[in-house]
Design brief:
Number of helices: 5
Distance between the termini: 32 Å
Helix content: 40-55%
Number of strands: 0
Order of helices and strands: HHHHH
Shape: globular
């Protein structure tokens, strides 16, 4: 994806928000981003809507909502997995590339003090090489969990 793709996805999100009267439509920022990127890629002709449905429906069937899982969390987990598989089938990404990118973002999050903006470059160094910070969490560099990290806005702003 390019910076132009990111800007186009942001435009899609702005249009959706305007249609909703400015009301939040997504529980997590990454839900909105995944949705907007899918809409943008379909508009751009990377895949058509029938292909999207053909990727999304099997993902929902094969990986249903888990017991205790929030319905929106399940839906967007399925959405993201379907998008990744569709893009991989087009040769636009690889599962290993996606895993590497997700792991870099996870390390960036773990290397960032609470309240500070998370920068991708912080994920290029191993977890723990970030000095002391004021939050507690479990660092497991072996984790292959691909759950997106939700980052809270800086408190007091």
């Amino acid at each position: 994806m390019t910076g132009a793709d990111d800007l186009a996805a942001a435009k899609v999100l702005a249009e959706i928000a305007a249609e909703a009267g400015g009301e939040p439509m997504f529980e997590q920022p990454w839900h909105a981003q995944a949705f907007a990127m899918t809409m943008h890629l379909a508009k751009r002709g990377v895949f058509d809507w029938d292909e999207w449905v053909g990727a999304f429906i099997p993902e929902v069937r094969e990986h249903p909502q888990a017991e205790g899982e929030d319905v929106n969390a399940a839906y967007f987990r399925q959405w993201l997995a379907a998008l990744e598989k569709l893009l991989a089938a087009r040769g636009l990404c690889t599962p290993d590339g996606i895993d590497d990118y997700a792991a870099t973002w996870r390390r960036a999050y773990l290397n960032t003090a609470h309240g500070d903006p998370v920068e991708f470059s912080a994920g290029r160094r191993p977890v723990g090489e970030h000095g002391e910070h004021t939050h507690e969490h479990f660092h497991d560099p072996r984790s292959r969990e691909r759950t997106p990290v939700a980052v809270s806005p800086r408190s007091g702003t």
